[in-house]
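Recap from last week: sequence in, structure out.
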Amino acid sequence: MRLNSTIMKRTSAVIGVLFTLVHQVFANIDLIGLYASGGATIVEASATLVLPSAPNPITGDVALWSAIQLDRDFIQGVSENAPAGAGYCTSLGSNWCNFAYALTPNVQNGKAVIAAPGTRVRTHYKLNSTTSLWDQNVYINDQPASTVSTSTSP
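Predicted structure tokens:
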């Protein structure tokens, strides 16, 4: 009977830790969906983020992003901060690494551009009427910075 009690206590502890971790993950996820009804189609979208202060201390990879989920592709504008040696930019300190990204059959990364907290980062998505695929542009304070297109292969 003592063995079953010990196993139950350990199982309860493991489940408690698991629920705590799951809660922490979901507490850090904000999701806003835009849905088209009927025969409507979204052909253009834009999302703007004003970069906050970077986490201090920097202990892991932190990413802020907007995205469009397609049938087979996932395109996003990413603002990332990570410890030295990790992530897409090096030696970020309190800055952010910003780039266009597409998870398609071939992963595509646009040019990475470093920006400070307070910078306005806008990602613009547009359905290319010629190819019926998506073009994505990331702007830093309204200046073009990074581009990815699912219309072309890297």
